[in-house]
Amino acid sequence: MPNTKRYLITGGIGFAVGTFFLWNYPNLALGSAIIGGLVIAALCLLYSAPLPDMVKGGLIAGLFGAVMTIVYGPDKPGVAIIAGMLSGLGAGLLAFQRKPQATPQAGAALGAGAGAIAGAWTALALFLTAFVIAPAAGVDASEFAEHLSETVILADAMGLASDILILLFVLVFCTITGALLGAAAGAARALPLRPNIPLLAVIALPVILIPLIDRAGNLLLLDALIPIYIFILLALGLNIVVGYAGLLDLGYAAFFAIGAYTTAMLSSPHLGINISFWLVIWVAAAVAAIAGLALGAPTLPLRGDYLAIVTLGFGEIVPILFRNLGGGPPTGTLTLRFFGLPIGIEQMDLTGGNKGINPISPPNLPLIGNFEPSNKIPWYYLLIIIMGLAIFFINRLRDSRQGRAWMAMREDELAADAMGINVVRTKLLAFSMGAMFSGFGGAFYGAFIGAIFPSSFDFSVSIILLCMVILGGLGNMAGVIVGGLLIQGADKMFIPKGAELFRDIADQRALTTGGSTVGVSALQDLTQQRLLLFGIVLVVMMLIRPEGLLPNERRKAELHSDDDPININSVAAEADADPSLAA
Amino acid sequence: MLQLQNVHTYYGNIHALKGISLEINQGEIVTLIGSNGAGKSTTLRTISGITPPRTGQVLFEGKPLNGVPAHKIVSQGISQSPEGRRIFANLTVRENLEMGAFTRNDKAEIASDMDRVFELFPRLKERVVQRGGTLSGGEQQMLAIGRALMSRPRLLLLDEPSMGLAPVLVDLIFEIIQNINSQGTTILVVEQNALMALGIAHRAYVLQTGAIVKAGDAATLREDEDVQKAYLGME
To answer: What are the coiled-coil residue ranges (chain B) (predicted)?
Structure first.
């Protein structure tokens, strides 16, 4: 088997990393997840011999689990279960890649099998961590077990029996997850729909289940997830402008600000107007869309760099405008001269200046009442619904006449004109559609945070959104979502938690060895370095994979058009070198 | 069918067309010949609305086209295969052709028109899923003409269809142009290759620095001494 060596090396590195963390950091969930990743890789290897896909997926799932544990590990071992579930998801997905199932039953059976395997490895990993590695490392495992018991079901039944029960629970949980996902995928595949529907079903289920797991495990995951989703919604809108229509927009945060401020002004005690969120969100989207037209109209003759500069200016102007429309000295009269005639304008505090607008009324529903800041679950589901609709709508838009007009305009504006495409309308519509989605995002953001400030919409927001679109893959929604999860996840979850982890390690070093912490001080404050990290990621991405992680096929072709002859040559060279192909 | 009356077109301050008047009748192939910079392409761009005239009238089937934007002129029945072909390099052949039918909404008719294009250009049918940019120069020209036909024009404007093509392909393209014309489409073709253009056209106009210096029957112009000297390379 040609790949064995590679897997062994990967496994060895993973094991070394796991051991290192275990030694330095006496929290065992982390080690368990890393070991789990290795075990799933090995199991995938056994499941069917040369399947690089499965091994890759297993490693990714294991890594994901490990990252989740880094993020929420320290005092929340329920994460091991999420890691298990995600691994079950990975295993299920990979199993489907190999053997597509056309009925819910067969899907459930296959999913259950994959889930059971994933559950078995999670349980095995927990077991190994608690009973083998922890004692060997001289670490007390009882605290860990206690946490697990509290998290799961058996608060009072302590001891070995409960540990075994927990392991069984993990196994059962993963099996059920796998079966559910499998059934969903099988059922979806049985429908006469496009082939990516099963994948969507498999992704949608965990997204819908996360709040429940979050509550069960008390992970406070939603606090980070909701802002991440808001940014993904914005990036999806920006993708219309940049990815579909090919218009570089460096001031997209302006529309986000317009959406948020519209909501804040119309739905808070600040101006004494208090319209229901359900109405205001539409108003905010409409105002943002009109602002999109306002930006689009003067920039019509501009292309490329020049357009980017104008949008950059627009992005700077809007937050400053909102800052200057309020605050300052208490109301007075501003006198303007209009053709020599003095006109008194009563100065109003429209936007609260630097202090912003606070509070903003939350949405209200009959059974739920006001959405509370303390309970994130209604917010989460509301956002999921908004995003689901946005994704559906943008998807339809891309495949519509309008979408084709954007594509033609991006490829060649003059030729598009010659095809009878109204380039002016197409451009304006791209700006205003893109702006509309950030209007929705801004409205939700304002209501969710409950207060807005001009500084929340500065240039860095536009840049981070653009990074999300580019990292994920211009013009491809799945790519944009992945890019958003990675960058925003890094920003709001991984980097802060990673910084915490480094601090803990450093403190412990200092305690055990009595040494200084100087060497790690730079790493300790990783959050300070986040823009540096994004910058490095962007530079590397542009050099090695300018089309993004999950590129749109056509965009990829546009960026690699020079490579075509080389590829053809290399294929020819391969054919020459391989006698079986030549013959 | 199409009339230009004393048309003046400018690029900024540059006076590109200095009072062009010409006429194209239903069913004709008319060619504009002339050297580089004579204003041949500008004339086409003026008709298709990409660079509208500053003064003068363009009449299509009796209706003035002044002030009608380029994208609307396509749905009025004039379609252009632009200079340099300008096919969508990253779209497939089929998608390029579909783009040509952008102004239309009748799926069945579009499909039958696409079959017609494939009949005219069997090479395109073989390459239907290939990206436009990977086609050879001749195939790209075929695609550009095919794409222009997809809007079902009554008047087809061709800008330098022979540019950059091998002589064999030039013959083929001109044969197809005649073929399209015989199926009822009026054609205005701008060419550097005056000999070929005069060979297939019914009538011709000779342009020099933005003005028409000679006009008439293609066969007659071919025998004209000045034309032979200046554009046909004969002494």
So the answer is: none
pLDDT (tens digit per residue) in A120-173: 655 665 666 556 555 555 555 555 555 444 444 333 444 455 556 656 666 676
CB-based contact A133:A36 (threshold 8 Å): no
Residues A481, A210: Cα–Cα separation, whole Å: 17
Average pLDDT over every residue of A179-201: 60
CA-to-CA separations, A260 to A28, A213, A273, A431, A456, in angstroms, rounded: 43, 30, 15, 18, 10
| Binary contact (A411, B48; C-beta < 8 A) | no
Residues A454 and A324: their CA atoms lie apart, in Å, by 10
Lowest mean pLDDT among A289-303, A516-530, B86-100: A516-530
Total domains, chain B: 1
Q: Report how far residue B196's alpha carbon sits from residue B162's, in angstroms, rounded to the nearest whole number.
A: 9
pTM of the model: 0.74
CA distance B47 to chain A (A): 11
Nearest alpha-carbon partner for A430 in A549, A316, A315, A307: A307
pLDDT tens profile A215-274: 766 667 788 889 999 999 999 999 999 999 999 999 999 999 999 999 999 998 888 888
Evaluate whether A153 touches A75 at the Cβ level (below 8 Å): no
Q: Which among A408, A417, A423 has CB closest to B88?
A: A408
Higher pLDDT, A198 or A472: A472
Dmax (CA) of chain A: 92
B86–A417 CB contact, under 8 Å:
no
